[in-house]
Structures are given as C-alpha cells and as structure tokens.
Specification:
The complex is a heterodimer of chains A (301) and B (301). With 301 residues, chain A is mainly alpha-helical. In chain A, 74% of the residues lie in helices and 0% in strands. The mean pLDDT of chain A is 90. In chain B, strand 11 and strand 12 form a beta hairpin. In chain B, strands 9-8-7-10-13-6-5-2-3-4-15 form an 11-stranded mixed beta sheet, sandwiched between helices. Chain B has a two-stranded antiparallel ribbon with strand order 1-14. A two-stranded antiparallel sheet of chain B has the order 11-12. Classes of the chains: A mainly alpha (301), B alpha/beta (301).
C-alpha cells in the first residue's frame, strides 16, 4: 500500500516509458510530415476525437472505480481479520475455563492463540503464493508441519486444527457448549474472511474490462496527433504526449489496483497487518512481542 | 527453536519492488534449509541514519520469523564495494540480486548493480527477472537445471548444482545447446574444442555428469536464448545454474545478460574465479538444534 504523498519518477517511468516513447515518435513524425512535408491530408477534425476522449474517460473512470472496489474490499476483509483474531484470543483466554492448578488448560489456551497467529501468516503466504512453513516452524513442531505440507490449503487446515482443539477443550477441560459455539462462530467468521480474500484473488476483473480499455487508450492516443496537428503544428508532440500520459496513467491505475494480493506496492499491507495481529495476540498471552513494521520508502507491505 | 544454519544468504537491498518480491524465493529456500539471512542496505553518508535504520528493520518483516536474520546498515558512497566487503568478512552460499527496473538510457550506459557485484564476488549469485511467474515460488524446488557449457571444464559447477539438487530433493536437468550450422560456426570451432554434434556433446556431458539417480540430460540444437526457454519449460525448472561467463557479457560494460532476466525461472550464477565455495554449507554443516532466536540489527560503516 502506498502511503507516501508523491511517487518517485523512477518507479513510474519504467512502466510507462515504452508506450510514451513510441507515441512521442509517432506524434513527432505526424507533426513534421504535416508542417515540413506538407502532408495536410493527415489532419482529421478534432471534434469527434474530443467526444471519443470524453467517452473513454467515463469508461476508464468506471473501470478504475471497479478496481478500487476490489482493493477496498480486500483491505476491509483484512481489517475484519484483525478484529476477529483479537476476539478469538480474548475468547480463548476467557471462555475456556482456566484451572490454575492445571497447566494443560493454559497450554491449550496458548496453543489456540498461537495457531491463530500461524493462521494469519499462513493466509498471507497463501494469498501471495509464498511458502509459509519456514515462518511457521517457530510455533509448530515438525510433525504438525509435515501434516500441513499435505494440505493444498494450509490456512484452512489450521482452522480445522483450532476447531479440533476446541472440541478437545469441550471433552477434556469442560468447555461449556454455549461458549464452544461462540468461539466456533468466530472461526466461521474467519473462514468467511478467507473465502472473501480467495474470491478476490481467484476471480480476476472481467477480461473485457482489461482488454478494451487498453486497446481503446492505445487507439485514441495514436489518433490524437492527427486531430491536434492542424491547430498546434510542431507543438503537437508536446500536447499529444501530455494527453496520452493522462489516459495511459488512468488505464494503469485501474489495472494495478485490481489485484490486491500480488506482492506489489499496491497490495493490501498484509505483512504489516499480520505483524499487528501477532503483536496484539502475543501481548495478550503476556509474551514478548516483535517490533512494529513501518512503511519502507513510503510503501507498506 | 532453531537449527544451526545450513544455507547462508546475503541479500543486499535497495528496497525496490523487485527486492520485496525476492522474499518469496527466500521463503522457498528457507523451506528446506535452515537459512541464515543477512540483509544489507547501503545508505549515503550524511543522510538520516535513524530513518534508514527504521526502514531496514521493517523491510521484509517475515524474515524475522526465520531462524537467523541479521540486518546491516552501511554508510558508504560505493554500494558494491561495501557489500563486497561484507561478503568477504563471512562465508555466504548465495547472494540475492533480483533484476530491477532501470531507466532506459541508464541501463545502456552504465553497468548494472548486479554486473558490478558479479565482478567482485566469488559467491554464487541468485537472480530473477520479472518474467518468472509467481506460482514458481508456491511449491518446493522440484527441478533444478544446470546449463552446461563445454568451452570450459564444468565439473565443479556440476558438482555444486548436483549437491544443491540433492539437498532440495530435486531432479537435476543438465541442459546444453549445440549451435546450429552456419558459416560463423567454423570460426568459433577453431577457437575452442566444444563439440558441434549433439551426440558427441551428450557423451561428453554424461562422462562429467554426477553419478546419482534423478539426473536428466537435454541437448538441443539452435540459439541459446530461444532454445533455453523451451528446454526450461520442458523440464519445469524451478531454478537454473549457469556459469559466470554465460551470465555476464560485454567487454567494456560488464553487464548481466538480459536473456537471463527473461527466463521462466530464477538463475544462480556460479563464479568463474578460483572457487572459494567448493561446497555448500549444508554439505559440511552438522545440523544441531539449539534453543533461541537470533535476530540482530547492526550499523556498519
């Protein structure tokens, strides 16, 4: 997630450069042919071009809005996961009856909270297509890791482990069925959050939303110098390239934020959010928490 | 609880997007090995050290969960020299240097950061371009390819690649491209004694190949850049080993070959010099479990 006020040019330029340079060459060629070469037939009326530009702007704005909806939903889902994780930790520590003479109950409470920490890290890795086991090794034993390796969906498997732990708490440690149901409801809500994230991850924007704006922007930018050259002459490349920059940037913004789980600067800051959850939960357990994560070069990951 | 590290990784970072995405590859390596990760950031003298310190702490937050993670901030005007200095002080098995987006003109006139590091290091260098699909890092390393060049003695590189594949329980694929017949081929044949017939090349490589199960050989005729991509796709390589001479090109500006950045898998470039690393750490390191977590932040100058 970008948290800085402005983007450095060296980060933006590589993504726009190829298209802009090509368009600038075209603009210059058209301007020179028209002014120096006398190829007046190159000029087309600018009025229809203006109308096409307006229609394209509306199309691009609509698409960017759709992409933003996906990005915001992803952020909202992770915000909900932060709250649900805190709720689960609170429920684990207060609803499961703690017997101070019995270390097993406290160990069970702690394991439940640690599994939730594992879960958020595993979900982050799952969404970013990253292997989670090196991170989970510090909380889980080799046998549990080996079990998880067999699973295609590691976070879902961790949720199942938590549910089994709750059943164990009911059968062996006297967890009240009503309390059990309450904690299980939290687990169900967490499952829903994961499902929402997976839906965004696995369902791309309709390809028409991706293909046609790109095609239309390229077509419009290529037509621009022909519409401007009659009025602007040799200044056409400057005006045309500037207008092209606006349309290309609008197109790129929509395309870049439509996938919020791709390990890019536009991502939902899952590393930071999962660290926040870890800090909260480990402090709830009375353990030493890791340090908070801050933006790096204005980007929060 | 962590084990004594059996793969030592040096990761110089500029906090670029490519550096963040390298986190996936490190997680993949850490899945099988107990890695010791040293993250280095070089900042210019006179800048805000506190801010750089905080950014370095927050960079790749998940690395704090690995067995050993050390972060070093260096104040220096010459980043490659400072990093080479760090590399000379300790033993490293891999240096992570992903390809970054560079401004067009700059990439033509100046050697890349990787190219400059390559000239100073004897340590194997890991690199990856933007064309590597994210899904490549979602699973463990299952196929390791090694590009064999018969212009020099490849036995030491084959040994390293084979040991790496064995440690990761991966299949080793030896790849060789015999140039297609042309007039220019006669000239190059005079300069070297590499075989020009696939069967001869195959026999020569088989003599050098490590004698262990799980080794495949693929010899193609054609252009290296194009055929290599096809061969890598055929063997589903997750990682490829190349010789330094195959990775660097250009006499005046020692640049990293762009072809390598367009491959569908990351590449490990093995040094041309007197092999300082003749064995990986995991080949001689006894794996012993120790209690504790080692994470530290160091300011060097």
């Amino acid at each position: 997630m970008i948290v800085r006020d402005h983007l450095p040019w060296f980060r933006v330029w590589p993504q726009l450069s190829r298209q802009l340079v090509l368009l600038f060459v075209l603009d210059t060629t058209v301007a020179v042919l028209y002014v120096v070469g006398g190829a007046t037939f190159l000029a087309v009326p600018s009025l229809p071009l203006g109308m096409v530009g307006s229609a394209l702007s509306i199309f691009l704005a609509f698409r960017t809005s759709s992409a933003y909806d996906r990005w915001w939903e992803a952020r909202a889902l992770w915000g909900r996961l932060v709250n649900l994780s805190r709720t689960l930790a609170r429920q684990a520590l207060t609803l499961i009856p703690a017997d101070h003479r019995n270390d097993q109950t406290r160990a069970l409470q702690r394991r439940l909270v640690l599994l939730q920490i594992c879960y958020v890290h595993a979900l982050r890795c799952h969404l970013r297509q990253q292997m989670p086991f090196a991170e989970l090794r510090q909380w889980l034993d080799a046998e549990t890791i080996a079990q998880l390796r067999q699973q295609a969906n590691v976070p879902a498997a961790l949720l199942l482990m938590m549910a089994e732990l709750l059943r164990d708490a009911h059968e062996r440690h006297g967890l009240d069925p009503i309390m059990w149901a309450a904690i299980d409801r939290t687990l169900t809500d967490i499952t829903d959050v994961q499902g929402g994230c997976e839906r965004i991850k696995n369902t791309p924007m309709p390809k028409q939303y991706d293909y046609f704006p790109r095609l239309l922007v390229s077509f419009f930018c290529a037509l621009l110098p022909f519409g401007l050259v009659e009025g602007l002459g040799l200044l056409t490349p400057i005006a045309s390239s500037s207008l092209s920059l606006i349309f290309i940037t609008l197109d790129r913004i929509g395309r870049e934020i439509e996938q919020p789980f791709e390990n890019t600067v536009q991502d939902t800051p899952m590393t930071s959010l999962s660290r926040t959850i870890e800090i909260n939960l480990r402090q709830t357990l009375g353990e030493r928490a890791p340090r908070e994560l801050y933006p790096v070069s204005g980007f929060l990951y | 609880m962590y084990s004594v590290p059996d793969l030592r990784i040096l990761f110089p970072t500029s906090f670029s997007d490519a550096c963040f995405q390298t986190g996936r590859a490190i997680a993949q390596l850490a899945d099988r090995c107990h890695i010791s990760l040293t993250i280095v950031h070089v900042t210019r003298p006179g800048g805000s050290t506190a801010a750089a310190y905080r950014e370095l702490e927050s960079f790749l937050g998940e690395a704090d969960h690995y067995d050993h993670c050390r972060r070093i901030l260096i104040e220096s005007d010459c980043a490659p020299a400072a990093i080479a200095d760090i590399a000379s002080q300790s033993r490293f098995d891999l240096v992570m240097t992903p390809a970054s987006d560079r401004l067009g003109l700059h990439s033509l006139l100046a050697p890349s950061f990787r190219g400059r590091l390559l000239g100073r290091f004897k340590t194997p260098m890991w690199t990856s371009g933007a064309t590597v699909p994210a899904g490549r890092f979602r699973h463990r390393i299952r196929h390791v390819a090694c590009l064999v060049d018969l212009d020099y003695d490849p036995s030491s590189h084959l040994t390293l690649a084979s040991a790496f594949a064995a440690r990761f329980d991966a299949r080793l694929h030896l790849l060789h491209v015999v140039p297609s017949i042309s007039e220019g081929l006669l000239l190059s044949a005079l300069e070297g004694d590499r075989p020009l017939h696939p069967e001869v090349a195959r026999a020569q490589i088989l003599r050098l190949a490590p004698s262990r199960p799980g080794v495949d050989l693929d010899v193609a005729i054609g252009e290296r850049a194009g055929d290599l991509r096809r061969m890598l796709a055929r063997c589903e390589a997750d990682l490829m080993f190349v010789h330094q001479r195959q990775a660097a090109r250009g006499v005046v500006f020692s640049r990293f070959a762009r072809d390598l950045d367009r491959l569908p898998c990351p590449v490990v470039c093995l040094s041309d010099r007197d092999a300082e690393l003749d064995r990986w750490t995991f080949e001689w390191q006894q794996r012993t479990d120790t209690v504790g977590v080692e994470n530290e932040l160091v300011l060097a100058s």
